[in-house]
Design goal:
Shape of chain B: globular
Largest sheet of chain B: 2 strands, antiparallel
Structural class of chain B: mainly alpha
Strand content of chain B: under 5%
Helix content of chain A: 25-40%
Distance between the termini of chain B: 31 Å
Number of strands of chain A: 22
CATH superfamily of the domain at 268-357 and 424-509 in chain A: P-loop containing nucleotide triphosphate hydrolases
Strand order of the largest sheet of chain A: 6-7-8-3-9-10
Distance between the termini of chain A: 38 Å
Low-confidence stretches of chain B: 1-8, 329-333
Number of strands of chain B: 2
Number of helices of chain A: 17
Strand content of chain A: 25-35%
Radius of gyration of chain A: 24 Å
Oligomer: heterodimer
Mean pLDDT of chain B: 89
CATH architecture of the domain at 268-357 and 424-509 in chain A: 3-Layer(aba) Sandwich
Structural class of chain A: alpha/beta
Helix content of chain B: over 70%
Largest sheet of chain A: 6 strands, mixed
CATH topology of the domain at 268-357 and 424-509 in chain A: Rossmann fold
Strand order of the largest sheet of chain B: 1-2
Number of helices of chain B: 15
Chain lengths: ~525, ~325
Amino acid sequence: MDESSSKQDSPQGILSLKNIHKSFGGIHALSNVSFELNKGEVHALVGENGAGKSTLIKIITGAYTPDAGVIQVAGEEFEGLTPSVARRLGIGAVYQEFNLLPDLSVAENIFLESPPLNKVGLIDTARRAREAYTFLERLGTHTHIDTGELVKNLTVGEQQIVEIAKALAMEAHILIMDEPSSVLPSADLDRLFSIVKTLRSEGHGIIYISHRLNEIFEIADRVTVLKDGLTMATKIVTETNSAELVLLMVGREMTDMYPPKDNQPGELLLEARDLCIEGTVFNVDFQVRAGEVLGMAGLGGSGRTTVCRSLVGLGKVHSGQVLYLGQPAPRSTAGAAGVGLVLIPEDRKTFGLVLNQSVRFNVALPNLLQFQRSGLLQGKVENDAVRRIISDVQIRPENPDMGAENLSGGNQQKVVVGKWLLANPKLVIFDEPTRGIDVGAKAEIYLRIRELTHRGVGVIMASSELPELIGMCDRILVFHEGRVAGELVRKDFSEEVIMRLATATSASTTPVS
Amino acid sequence: MAVAQTSTSSSAAHRSRKLIAFLRNNASLLLIYGLILVVGVYAATQAENFRTISNMANILRQTILLGMIAIGQSVVILTGGIDFSVAMIARVVALTVATIFAAQNSNPALIVPLILLGLVVGVALGSVNGLLITRTHANPFIITFGMANILRGVSLAIATTPIRGIPREYLRIYDTKIGIIPVNVIVMALIWIAAWIFLNRSRLGRAVYAVGGSERVARLSAIRVNRTLMAAYMFSAFCASVAGLFILSRSGVGDPITAEGMDFQSVVAVALGGISLYGGRGSLWGTLGGVLLLVMMSNVFNLLQVNIYVQQLFLGLIVLIAVAAYKSPRSAT
């Protein structure tokens, strides 16, 4: 399949997995998967959720032992790794959820495992700060991050850099990056790419996982596609294109992700007037009408999520007003849901799902009143409603008793969407509706949103993915540092204009390319 | 190829997964009732006194008082909290009622009003727990433990020696039977059934599980979290108050060490019964088994003359094992 070994001047393999098998209780997570990584290579790993990427990563980091197959690291052969062996072999990982201690400084976090010691055996803080600085400088970011700053005061992008530096401090030369871009505002992407390129030129091998195919073409050398636990192909990036990768990933061509726009905005549903939230949101005005999609763009921390949460009564409104159907909006989520105003929050695992409960429990939770007859919940009514939602939003498997934590990310998101569809909302606020889910599930979520607007439901869609905002919205509100930097109508949509507003760079200072 | 293999074996795999899921979901129940059987059989062969009717009746009686408290404790623990003030609420309720009886010349006409007063005092204390927990967001253990210490002080202020002067009619309540069933058994059964219906068939009960599973998710799912927590702590205090009233009827005097140790015992019983101390998982069947097993073991220990300190050590071990057995939801993912 892959001819890269004969291409360059003898690339040096540092990691190779051969014919890896792994199953869980009769389900094949990986079947005969092979994967190679060379020194100084960025090897992308793509596939829909449930394709086996996470399992493969866990085998490389030693969290799982394969049922069969061979792992070769730096010439040594293993039947399976343990986390400590993997670490000793120089395998490091940067996950979507960072392993940083927010109340410790940058330097303390970078050297958490093995801080430099002085002669007496105590931590040499001066040397630690110096060496932390060196690591950050190597990543080309020393001007931005103070090694003494507490990690909780850093932006997400800066925290990610600290996480990478931490892996380097543990002498990792095989670096796994699990969807590093998904947590970043678009403005930080260039910095991430330049770091990845720096690491590559230093001879590190990088396994780069992403749902965003355009990133792969920007920085990867090779790409391996997994589907249903099988290796579909390993391609040299310059010899493939995104259409081919999508076809390999989903087994079908995705011609148009976004359903056609044919919204007919109706009556005014919600209006924010001069909304101010202490320290984070200032003088925000907007309106949402029935049957339209209002987009909210902006970098992480721009106030987008804070506004979304405040609309359903979460957090304190400092001044200003939110009117819903002409009345002041309820100041609790329960009150808001009672009048059809619902928030589908970002981060389904933290805010969307009771993970240790079933799909049924989760879908039913905000809708219990519907299942109540003379004061008692009726199991049959509940069951029928949950089954209807499972088939409406196509949750797989179609098992209401399935534990929410055992579903793939895409299906988890469908459960969160489904539980609110059952509530018959009038206005739905989606915050990052498609983060970290595969293209197939994304397309289905978009379809659900379009169905809502057809039924005359108003939708607010806050997202950091510009293509989906442009593809789905009728109007886009762009936030910058807690203020509305601009409102765009459909004919003015472009990624460039949105980014310019979101980063507050005027057109004249943007270099013309 | 692997795909084909997966699909042919999937229905069998599905069935075995269902079986495994059933066993896993009910493992703690199977375990607890199995243990009761084992301990019972063992005790019956080892200690002759265990088999006697009067000992069996004794075990049941002890089950009832701890059982009432443990039902309330179960609901609180299902919300992810803990109520360490239950024993002291039972004590303060018992001593309050006893003091008023004593001051009013054991007037039997006061029985009904004082029972109601006792319940009101108890539930009011529970609502203070609930208010402090929902307003301060402090750890429920700290709040209820602090409450327990305040109430311990209050009860010492009320009485340091047993309070006499409880009317004879009140003392009879504990032994009153309707048909052949003692009233206390009926009350405990009613509380258990009410709690079961509440947890399984009411919106508020579902909210208890949701809050215990994840408070943030519950709040974002239109659940009134504060109201749910208030209800749980008030219910727990109600159960403790009922137990306090029965203990007063049983002992016949307002005993200043009423219900000593029942706070910890109730937590142990709930944990034994398989309700996760992290909240959100478990059932009242488990609590019933947990109480029965605990009372039975302590009965057997006494019959076999096991040192009281060893018994204490044993209780402590059970809690540690229960905590270890239910990993925190965070570490499980």
